[in-house]
Each structure stands twice: as C-alpha cells, then as structure tokens.
Amino acid sequence: MKTLFAPALLSLALAACASNTSTDPQQGAAAGTTAAGTAADASADIKLDAYHWRLTSAQDASGKAIAVLAPNPQRPLQLDFKGDRVSVSGGCNGANGRYTRDAKGLTFGDMAQTLMACQDRGLMELDTAVGERLRGTLPAKIEGGDAPSLLLTAANGDQLRFEGAPTPATRYGGEGKTVFFEVAAQRAPCSHPLIPNMRCLQVRERSYDANGVAAKTDAAWQPLYQEIEGYEHQAGVRNVLRVKQYDIKNPPADASSVAYVLDMVVESEVVAK
C-alpha cells in the first residue's frame, strides 16, 4: 500500500462589494428588487446534501434560548441530507427519514430512530426535543456565503438555526473511493524528513466478500504517513475502519495526492499488551 502524508488544507474565499450611489427612488427600488431576487436564486442553488448542517442556536417564539437544544460544540446536533432522506445525529440516538424541499420549506416525514439508552439524560431529552420539532412542513430560510445557514421554524414558533460545513465530497470535488483499513493497536516510529520522531499509524487494507465476510489477511503492517480525518486513535485498540479516499487536485510537491476520511468504525478490539 502506498504510504503518504498530507498537510492541513487551507482555503481562502474572497468577496466583492458593490455600492449604489443613485438617489432615484425608482432606480433604488429596482436595484433592491434585483438584489433580493439574486439572493433568492442563490439560496435555491444551495444543495443541502453538499453540507453537514450543525445546530448553532435554538430559541422559542419569544426569542428565549431553548435549554435542551443548547448547541454542544463537542457533540453538535447535525442534519445530513442525501437524496430524499435526512439523518439526524448528535443526540443519544440517530434518526433517519424522508424529506422534501419546495418553495414553502422542508417537509419531514416520520423518523425511524435507534433505541439505545444513554446514561446522559440530556442526550435522551435532546432526541425527544428534536423529534417534536422536525415534523411536517417547516418554513425554511437558506442563506449562502462562505458558511451557509439554514433557519427552520417549527409549528410552535421555535427557530432552529444550522450552519453548513462542506462535506468531504464537496471539499475534494468527488464522491471518493471506499477502502477498508485495519489499524494496529499501537503507533510505531516512522522515518520522515520533515518531522523528527514521527510515529505513524500502522495499517493494512482489508476486503470483504458479497456477504460481508472479511477475507483473511497476513499482509504486513505499513506506516501511514498522514492522519485519517475524523479518526482519533486510542493506544491499545485495534480498529477496522471504512474510509473514503479522495484525490487531491494539484497538491504541493511534498504533500500527499490523496486524503482519507473516516466513514465508520466497523470493528474494535482492545489488545492486551
């Protein structure tokens, strides 16, 4: 397997400003109408499935913050749209259901939810609070920009505001390739000309048949000279990961041409020392 590393990616967005100095009321009104129409068109062009939508604020009809929906940066409540389905994560349980989008807003169908019980009662209450609000047709206001926003108004007047973070497919310009990595329980020293005393993840690729049965492997462990985005390695724990591999367009000469993003943890095992 090819061993590579990738530095942090940096993106810079530039915005242009235009001013209108006309004092003609009719001209000004026309300009305002054009600007509003342009903004509406821009919001209509925003694809919901191009972003992870993370809750940034929740308030009731009087403008008071809703305590049970207070955003948690460490475990954000998140909406993900794909095709005609939407999934909800960040609480105790995950939920998934159908949705439609039209000029009136977003219409949510009944959600199917996992049935785990969590010791954190706040997460259980969060599941209930979200489920009560994401029902039926909710007026939706979508605004573009570097960080697009989605404002949903529930039937009781509560307003939930979400901020869009580009998905890996959006950032890297493609759906990516699915690969399976087995990650050894311990990192190991690896030689790197720019990073002294580097310790790399030890990985080997795994494969599965049509029935999902893993093929046995005795392949040697290989150092991975880069991190897997979204994966936090715990020493002493062996994992099998489903990973998305994305090609990086025009990478720097000393950087990797691919990026790895965690899709899901397939298997975990605590390995005795």
Index terms:
single chain, 273 residues, mainly beta, Lipocalin, 2 domains, 3 helices, 37% strand, globular, disordered N terminus
Overall description:
By secondary structure, the protein is mainly beta. It folds into two domains: 47-166, Lipocalin (Beta Barrel), CATH 2.40.128; 171-270, no CATH class. 14% of the residues lie in helices and 37% in strands. The chain has three helices and 15 strands. It has helices at residues 25-45, 121-133, 168-172, and strands at 51-59, 78-82, 85-89, 95-102, 105-113, 136-138, 140-143, 149-153, 159-166, 177-183, 188-189, 199-206, 222-224, 237-247, 258-270. The strands form two sheets. A nine-stranded antiparallel sheet has the order 6-5-4-3-2-1-9-8-7. Strands 10, 11, 12, 13, 14 and 15 form a six-stranded antiparallel sheet that branches. The model is unreliable at 1-41 (pLDDT under 50). It comes from Lysobacter silvisoli. Keywords: Signal.
Summarize the structure.
The chain has 273 residues and is mostly beta strands. It contains three helices and 15 strands.
Blueprint of the fold:
Elements: H1 25-45, E1 51-59, E2 78-82, E3 85-89, E4 95-102, E5 105-113, H2 121-133, E6 136-138, E7 140-143, E8 149-153, E9 159-166, H3 168-172, E10 177-183, E11 188-189, E12 199-206, E13 222-224, E14 237-247, E15 258-270
Antiparallel strand pairs: 1-2, 1-9, 2-3, 3-4, 4-5, 5-6, 7-8, 8-9, 10-12, 10-14, 11-12, 12-13, 14-15
Domain DUF306: 49-162
InterPro entries: DUF306_Meta_HslJ, DUF4377, HslJ-like_sf, Hsp_HslJ-like
Domain DUF4377: 182-267
